[in-house]
Automatic annotation (TrEMBL):
UniProt name for this protein: Glycosyl hydrolase
A biological process term (GO) from this entry: carbohydrate metabolic process
Organism per entry: Streptomyces monashensis
SMART domains named among the record's database cross-references: Fn3_like
Fibronectin type III-like domain: residues covered: 684-753
InterPro entries assigned: Cellulose_deg_GH3 (IPR050288), Fn3-like (IPR026891), GH (IPR017853), Glyco_hydro_3_C (IPR002772), Glyco_hydro_3_C_sf (IPR036881), Glyco_hydro_3_N (IPR001764), Glyco_hydro_3_N_sf (IPR036962), Ig-like_fold (IPR013783)
A GO term, aspect molecular function: hydrolase activity, hydrolyzing O-glycosyl compounds
Entry keyword set: Hydrolase
Family to which this protein belongs: Belongs to the glycosyl hydrolase 3 family.
Length: 786
């Protein structure tokens, strides 16, 4: 190498150096304005003609002037694919040209990080729409979720995206909250294991995973979006934080997004103890903390803890927020003014900037051979956009097969009187508002609902077979009568007469009820679509009642984003299937379960309430929250967390307690067997719950500490060896530290939180032991089948 050329290469371009050293070298060369430019994003939309991205027009803020902004650099591009419908290949070209412009405009040649939503698949036109996270939880299958996330990340990376705003680790505390569909469930261990798998998959594809919403967003008062949060330190420590802790330790995500809410008067975006003290100083997180959209501005607009934009910027920056999204506002001129006025030290900007630049170095964006052309269009002629159109498939057959497998494993059979599987019915009455609606399988953050609904002239970009279409394919010899009966949230009962007539003429009724996903009140489920009670929207419960009265067996199919009370169906329906927005292949999965082609194996990630007005309610409750004679209301579930039926039977037996007593620093060993005694192969989900009868602070009656899916052929038996570390019995004690206490415990080896098959008394001896974030988080489960 030419020595002169080697000397001319700036240190921040030297790929042999540690990213932190490269970042420091670049920081030393930057002006204050160049520094702050790296801490903001700009909301854009890719051009469907292949030109550069254009700033997105939105109600919160005037779009910035790119000609004025870009000479100083740019930190992030917000949702280039997820803002307007755009062909994937042409959008990739548009993004590449924009990155070329960004790099050429600033004197260091630094491109932007492009981020997208990926809550239930890459939120882009034509991309696979996978089941929503609540369905991921229903699978109890982290390995499958990891595979899905890797596929999502691969598609995103191929078109030039660097960061994904997922997964959501909020634990459901009140099912009235509209964003329940975005969560994984009501148990922190289930949420943590599934979310960690998603992070691992996304990061394996080179995409920066973003944990959200940190922390407590789902615990808002009355289940209202963006409402204050009231919780004690133990609820936060033992329910809300563990999924984040697990995902950070085992998934190694490179970004965290703060929550919108305030907890006990402290907004998350201004919570230094949370974002720096816990997240960084204790847990050791060294990635970036990004703002939830407009979250820094909300410190002034909604929380009232800042009196000006520069004060809001200073609060967020000091607390540990590194990047303002979705667009430049407080981290622009207000932050510059605050530094010049001496109210914000430049060292705080350097701290955030170092994290941003280290990440850009890790992504290859500071490398001398950086190429803006992504892999998906690298072999094409970028000068002819129309030649690219249609050349990138974001919904290939492999993706669709994966989406279908997830949907099949997520369908929960709640009730069955023997009617299912249906066999070969001659006449099927398919009734309900979700029977013939293609988007009934999609959640709020799927592209066709989130963005496509604003562009009705544009095709959905993916195949979305209706339940009617898939039933016709699944039962080709059957005559199918279809009638909506009612709208999802309308108040008209005019369609009841037609629906009852169809039911009486049929051998079986398939009744498709549930939700319509939408944003901010435009749906019955989704962000800003909170409800006052858990009763089915509109007149759907009345439609259910008249059909139950018609006399024909009713198979209820729920396509929803949250659990609802099911009224008389709980005891009178022939069968009930619960499917939480199962994605583009969801109706195929449901049809397969109805016919028996698919043996259902989903388990409830959230309890199905028996009464419409008992929220907030969760299985993870203390004794005082249980039913009692001193209250006239009941919190019991119609179908409990972890519940799910199948088409075969299992026998649990042969308990062998190897170690039932151990010290507070030890562990237990227990073995048992599960045998498939039915006539077909099937899946049993073995769940491990811990009951602590006496503790120094109030504990939930039980909590999930492990689980395992077992797939057994007819007659096959699996021996399960469980090694349970005492660390799993830890909780936050009276003095705010996590401890393991001596005393009696009870392990419940269960098929659900209310179906305990084997109960094992256990005993912890020795002193109280303090544990921390390095404690063991999982049991060891070993399975031998024969």
């Amino acid at each position: 190498m030419n020595p002169a050329a080697e000397l001319a290469t700036p240190a921040w371009r030297d790929v042999s150096l540690d990213p932190a050293i490269r970042a420091d070298a670049l920081i030393a060369a930057m002006t204050l304005r160049e520094k702050t430019a790296q801490l903001v994003g700009v909301w854009v939309g890719a051009s469907d003609e292949g030109g550069e991205v254009a700033p997105h027009q939105h109600e919160m803020e005037e779009p910035p002037d790119l000609d004025e902004l870009l000479p100083h650099g740019l930190g992030q591009l917000t949702r280039p694919f997820g803002t307007v419908p755009v062909d994937a290949a042409v959008g990739a070209l548009s993004l590449a040209r924009s990155q070329q412009r960004i790099a050429a405009a600033n004197r260091f040649g630094i491109p932007a990080i492009a981020h997208e939503e990926c809550l239930a698949g890459f939120a882009a036109w034509g991309a696979t729409a996978y089941p929503v996270p609540l369905s991921w939880g229903a699978t109890f299958n982290p390995e499958l979720v990891r595979t899905m996330a890797a596929a999502i990340g691969t598609d995103m990376r191929a078109v030039g995206v660097h960061q994904g705003l997922a997964p959501v680790l909020d634990v459901v505390r009140d099912a009235r909250w509209g964003r329940v569909e975005e969560t994984i469930g009501e148990d922190p261990y289930l949420v943590g294991t599934i979310a960690t798998a998603y992070v691992q998959g996304l990061e394996s594809a080179g995409i920066v995973a973003t944990l959200k919403h940190f922390a407590g967003y789902s615990a808002s008062r009355a289940g209202r979006n963006l409402a204050p949060v009231t919780m004690g330190t133990r609820e936060r420590a033992d329910v809300i934080l563990p999924p984040f802790e697990m995902a950070l330790r085992e998934g190694r995500p490179r970004s965290v997004m703060h929550a919108y809410t305030d907890t006990d008067g402290i907004p998350s975006a201004a919570d230094q103890e949370l974002l720096t003290g816990l997240l960084r100083d204790t847990w050791g997180f060294d990635g970036t903390v990004v703002a939830d959209y407009f979250g820094i501005a909300f410190l002034k607009l909604l929380h009232g803890v800042a009196g000006s934009w520069d004060e809001a910027a200073g609060l967020a920056l000091a607390s540990g927020v590194d990047v303002e999204l979705p667009t430049v506002k407080t981290f622009g001129q207000p932050l510059l003014d605050a530094v010049e006025a001496g109210t914000v030290p430049e060292e705080l900007i350097d701290r955030a900037l170092r994290r941003v630049l280290v990440q850009k170095a890790q992504l290859g964006l500071l490398d001398p051979d950086w190429n803006p052309i992504p892999q998906a269009i690298s072999g094409a002629n970028p000068t002819v956009p129309e030649a690219l159109r249609g050349s990138v498939d974001l919904d290939p057959p492999a993706n669709r097969r994966l989406a279908r497998e997830l949907a099949e494993q997520a369908v929960v059979l709640l009730r069955n009187d023997g009617t299912l599987p249906l066999g070969r019915p001659r006449r099927i009455a398919l009734i309900g508002p979700n029977a013939d609606t293609p988007t009934a399988v999609l959640g709020c953050y799927s592209f066709p609902v989130h963005v496509g609904s604003q562009h009705p002239e544009v095709p959905t970009g993916i195949a979305l077979p209706t339940l009617h279409e898939t039933l016709a394919a699944e039962f080709p010899d059957a005559e199918i009568f279809s009638a909506p009966g009612a709208a999802v949230d309308g108040d008209s009962t005019a369609g009841f007469t037609e629906a009852v007539a169809a039911a009486r003429a049929a051998d079986v009724v398939v009744l498709a009820l549930g939700d319509r996903a939408g944003l901010f009140g435009r749906g019955t489920s989704g962000e800003g679509c909170d409800v006052e009670s858990m009763q089915l929207p509109g007149v759907q419960e009345q439609l259910l009642d008249v059909l139950l009265d018609a006399g024909t067996p009713v198979v209820l199919v729920m396509l929803a984003g949250r659990p609802y009370t099911l009224g008389r169906a709980e005891t009178e329906a022939a069968a009930i299937l619960q499917s939480f927005f199962p994605g583009e292949a969801g109706t195929e999965a449901i049809a397969g379960v109805l016919s028996g082609r698919v043996n259902p194996s989903g388990r409830l990630p959230v309890s199905v309430p028996r009464h419409k007005g008992v929220q907030p309610s969760t299985y993870l409750a203390a004794r005082l929250a249980q039913d009692s004679d001193v209250s006239s209301t009941s919190t019991s579930a119609a179908y409990a967390f972890g519940h799910g039926l199948g088409y075969t039977e299992f026998e649990w037996s042969a308990l062998d307690v190897g170690v039932a007593e151990t010290g507070t620093d030890g562990g237990f060993r227990i073995a048992f067997e599960v045998r498939n005694t039915g006539e077909r192969s099937g899946c049993e989900v073995v769940q491990f719950y811990l009951h602590d009868p006496v503790a120094s602070v109030v504990q939930p009656v039980q909590r999930l500490v492990g689980y395992r899916r077992l797939l057994l052929e007819t007659g096959e038996v699996c021996r399960v060896l469980l090694e349970l570390p005492a660390d799993l019995a830890s909780f936050t004690g009276r003095e705010g530290r996590r401890i393991v206490e001596p005393g009696e415990l009870e392990l419940r080896i269960s098929a659900s939180s209310t179906d305990h098959r084997i109960t094992v008394p256990m005993h912890l001896t020795g002193p109280v032991r303090e544990v921390d974030h390095t404690r063991m988080l999982h049991p060891v489960v070993t399975v031998e089948c024969r």
